[in-house]
Amino acid sequence: MTKDGNFKVLSHVYGCTAREIEIASALVKGKTLRNISDLMGIRYETVRSHTKSLMGKLNVRTQNQLLLLLGQIGS
């Protein structure tokens, strides 16, 4: 399974949306929220909202915790 394919578990287990998974993948690749906003052509605030939603669904409190967890899922 590819690294991006590993993130499909986010949908099946945690109920994450396709956009949240897309953002998760970009975060693991080292993109900043601002980079993601520019790449996806969406507002920075929208990326932040999706990131906060991801954090809630994955039950983490900080972006560092989110990145650590996503790194484990994506490897």
Descriptive report:
This protein is mainly alpha-helical. It has one domain: Winged helix-like DNA-binding domain superfamily/Winged helix DNA-binding domain (Arc Repressor Mutant, subunit A, Orthogonal Bundle), CATH 1.10.10.10. Helices cover 75% and strands 0% of the residues. The chain has 6 helices and no strands. Helix 3 (18-28) crosses helix 5. The model has no long low-confidence stretch (mean pLDDT 90).
Overview in brief:
By secondary structure, the chain is mainly alpha-helical. The chain is built from six helices and no strands.
What keyword list fits this structure?
0% strand; 75 residues; mainly alpha; 6 helices; single chain; Arc Repressor Mutant, subunit A
Topology summary:
Layout (H helix, E strand, L loop, with lengths): L2 H4 L1 H7 L3 H11 L4 H8 L3 H14 L5 H12 L1
Strand content: under 5%
Note the gap between the termini.
10 Å
Strand runs, count? 0
Number of helices: 6
What is the total number of structural domains? 1
> What is the arithmetic mean of pLDDT?
90
Radius of gyration (Å): 11 Å
CATH homologous superfamily classification = Winged helix-like DNA-binding domain superfamily/Winged helix DNA-binding domain
In the CATH scheme, what's the topology name? Arc Repressor Mutant, subunit A
SSE ordering: HHHHHH
Contiguous uncertain segments of 5+ residues: none
Determine and state the CATH class: Mainly Alpha
* Global outline: globular
Share of helix, binned = over 70%
Question: What would you call the structural class?
Answer: mainly alpha
Oligomer: single chain
Report on the biggest sheet.
Answer: none
Please identify, by name, the CATH architecture: Orthogonal Bundle
